[in-house]
Amino acid sequence: MGSTFTRADNVTIPGTFGDPISVPYYLQFVPGIVTEVVTSDRSFQSFNKAEYTNTILAMPHITSKPKRKKSDLTNTDRYFPLMRGFVDVPAKGDPVLLCEIGGIKYYLGPLNTQNNPNFNNDFMFVPEKPITDIVKMATDEKRTMMGQSLNFKKVNHNRMMKPIKKELDRGEAINETHGDMLFEGRHGNSLRIGSRDKNPYVFISNGRHSNNFNESNADGSLISITNSGTINQHFGQYIELEKPNPDDDTTWTRTPIPFILGSDRVEGNQRLMSSVVKSINQVDDVNQVLYNYDKNQVFINSDRIIFNSRGNEQYNGDIYLSAKNNIHIGAGNTLSISTNKNLIIESNKTYLGDPNKETNKDKMEPLILGNALFDIFDELFSILEGTTSNQYFPLALGYQGAPLKAVLDPLRQKIDAIKSKHHFIEPNDRG
After folding, report:
1. Helix, strand, coil % over all residues of the chain, rounded to 5
2. Peptide bond into 20 cis (omega under 30)
3. What is the DSSP letter of 71?
4. Which of 46-55, 345-354, 395-404 has the weakest average pLDDT?
5. Are 109 and 97 in contact (CB under 8 A)?
6. Which of 40, 316, 404, 417 qualifies as a FRET site for 390, CA 20 to 30 Å off?
7. Phi, then psi, of 245 in degrees rounded to 5
């Protein structure tokens, strides 16, 4: 059952002869414990019904009926999420609040009894069998006695915090800032909707280390949408802990790690993306362009990122990548582009190499137009054949006195072969 009438020793009224009388009162939300969880139509106690998804079987701690065992629970002890569009599905053993409205049973929770995003113990739960020596019990045995799932992974994840950042939290009060709206998962993922000063942001973090209190570049994956502040101001300078001596737990090396482009972190890379960006923008300090930008920006950081447009019978499956100014692509190893049909590069000038690099200035070589070059050679051969067709090549050159035309014809075929059938450049008449 959910909502119920109950009595409490400290809620009384004077009786007929002055003795206190306990008065029943209505308890809308009753604390209880989760015994089964339905996460899909394959879950135990789902009875293969999709409409039971995210429901639970639960036992109330306060009831006017005789206490029952977990094995006694039936479909009448099923509780649905109270909220329509949001649900925080509990785990077995989680403490929850139970209620009944309009003949339907609902739950709220899990309850935050220990302020732990991973799991919170139910301190009102009394095991069906007395625990005689919990210290000597194996972990699995303890969890079974407490009604908790053996499949649930308990991890000591720290609660998310919002440390004050003076460069972003502007104000006169010392060590004071406002909180954010936080959605924390059980195993190091979160959604933060908040702001610094009056500047809003949205952070989606996944794979955060259990010892970290807030999002950083060290997270497994991070997506941020910021209105003000640089990437390093929001996420950089996280501390990387190193243990120089494996046998000494007291000495740790703390290294601050700023955000750096992945391609520029490759040791031995002689063609840094930052160098090309600096060259194109003609700036003395590339950090002002790359890392010190503090206006609206979207930042995506992970070990691997895939953009895929699959398309279907109705849609082409295109990807459009556009920028009002520049687009920069950098790779620490290889940049490959593969296409089934055409690769089209439309630009005023196309450079293979940085034209602004000191070693390349005034030394860039133009490409040759294949057809124009072929026409020149073809005309040259025609002239040679027409003027010297009866001449014989000298024996010293190894042609054994063959006519010049016979020598030029095979060479003309070789010249024709130098024209590519797959790669083309535009003519010069476009300016």
Report:
1. 20, 20, 60
2. no
3. G
4. 395-404
5. yes
6. 417
7. -115, 110
Cα(2)–Cα(77) distance, integer angstroms:
9
Separation of alpha carbons 176 and 169, rounded Å: 9
Give me the chain's average pLDDT, please: 84
Nearest to 275 by CA among 118, 283, 267: 283
pLDDT tens-digit readout, 277-327:
999 999 999 999 999 999 999 999 999 999 999 988 788 899 999 999 999
As a whole number of angstroms, the distance between CA 217 and CA 207 comes to 11
Q: Other CB atoms closer than 10 Å to residue 222's CB: what's the count? A: 22
Q: How many CB atoms lie within 10 A of CB 292?
A: 13
281 vs 330: CA distance, rounded Å: 16
Residue 398 has a pLDDT of: 45
Are the CB atoms for 398 and 412 separated by under 8 Å?
A: no
Contacts of 324 (CB under 8 A, 6+ apart): none
pLDDT, one tens digit per residue, over 236-265 is: 766 665 656 666 655 556 666 789 999 999
| Cβ neighbours for 380, distance < 8 A, ≥ 6 positions apart | none
**Residue 60 neighbours by CB under 8 Å, 6+ apart:** 1, 2, 4, 30, 31, 32, 98
Residues 6+ away with beta carbon under 8 Å from 261: 273, 274, 290, 330
* Selected residue with higher pLDDT from 326 and 396: 326
Which contiguous run of DSSP H or E holds residue 378?
helix 370-388
Give backbone dihedrals phi and psi of 231, rounded to 5 degrees, phi first.
-60, -40
Distance CA 76, CA 344 (A): 66
Contact 303, 220 (CB under 8 A): yes
State residue 426's pLDDT score.
75
Instruction: Quote the DSSP letter at residue 51.
Output: G
Tokens (6 digits) for 297:
């920006």
- The SS3 assignment for 327 reads coil
What type of residue is 411? L
